Amino acid sequence: MQVNCDIVRDLVTLYKDGVANAGSVTAVREHLAGCPDCRRYYRQYDAVSHTLRIHPRPAGSSVADTGGFNALAVRLKKRRTVSNAAMLGLVGVAAGALLLWMHSAGKNGSSPDDRL
Ligand SMILES: [Zn+2]
């Protein structure tokens, strides 16, 4: 069976895991024998799968549950919390200044609009 590189690269995972059917195994082997690009792809896939076997993901973790993403999410949440607190503080200071200004304007017997 003559197959192109895209099909072989899709089949490499099945081939490597030993679950490809006999026809696919033959097609992948024949293609790898004559295609240096796909042989390189296969070696890279083999190296990655070997690394994953040596360093398995901790039990109970999911794909999204990696330390890098979790650390980034925590940092972003902290930054957002600090930003929200700063904004709340600014609004409070502005409201206080407005009240103070309105209060002092009231003592002088004039409305804040008279000062403009
Ligand atoms: Zn190829």
Sum up the overall morphology in one term: rod-shaped
What is the helical fraction, as a range of percent?
over 70%
Topology pattern, helix = H, strand = E: HHHH
Instruction: List the ligand species.
Output: zinc ion
Give the low-confidence spans: none
**Count the helices. How many?**
4
**From the helix content, strand content and strand pairing, which structural class follows?**
mainly alpha
Proportion of residues in β-strands:
under 5%
On the 0-100 scale, what is the average pLDDT?
83
Note the gap between the termini.
88 Å
* Biggest beta-sheet profile: none
Describe this structure in words.
With 116 residues, the chain is mostly helical. It has two domains: 1-56, no CATH class; 63-116. Helix content is 74%, strand content 0%. It is rod-shaped and about 95 Å long. The termini are far apart. The model has no long low-confidence stretch (mean pLDDT 83). Zinc ion binds at residues 5, 8, 31, 35, 37-38. Zinc ion binds next to helix 1 and helix 3.
